[in-house]
Each structure stands twice: as structure tokens, then as C-alpha cells.
């Protein structure tokens, strides 16, 4: 018999050289809605884009990437 399992979402971001793992506030929300939710705490997310998902360690990992603060 075939079983399906929903993988939990995990959101990754870098801020000031440190990588953070952000939990999923609500699995029903879109990835963009989660990014806007966390933008109140991490203002760099206002100009970020979501990359992913990538399946790692039985989770769906999305990465929030921004080019703010980098040169070149």
C-alpha cells in the first residue's frame, strides 16, 4: 500500500552573515505570505526572493535570498 506524507516546510535566510532557520507559522500560507510575516522582524526580507523548495532531511526547505548589502 502506498502512503503519502506531507513534509514540513522550513525557511532559511542569512542576516549579517548568520544563517537562521525560521519555522512555518501556518502551513496553509503561501511562501510569499510567510516571507511578509517575517519581514516585520527581518526587514531585509522586504527585498528578498524565495528559492526552492529543496527536499533535505525530510523537510521542504525554502531559502529567502536578498542582494541587499552586497557589492559587485
UniProtKB/TrEMBL annotation:
Source species, domain of life: Bacteria
Pfam family, one: Prok_Ub
Protein name: PRTRC system protein C
Biological source species: Flavobacterium suzhouense
Amino acid at each position: 500500500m502506498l502512503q503519502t506524507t506531507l513534509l514540513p516546510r522550513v525557511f532559511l535566510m542569512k542576516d549579517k552573515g548568520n544563517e537562521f532557520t525560521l519555522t512555518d507559522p501556518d502551513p496553509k500560507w503561501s511562501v510569499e505570505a510567510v516571507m511578509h510575516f517575517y519581514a516585520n522582524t527581518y526587514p531585509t526580507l522586504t527585498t528578498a526572493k524565495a528559492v526552492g523548495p529543496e527536499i533535505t532531511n525530510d523537510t521542504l526547505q525554502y531559502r529567502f535570498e536578498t542582494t541587499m548589502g552586497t557589492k559587485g
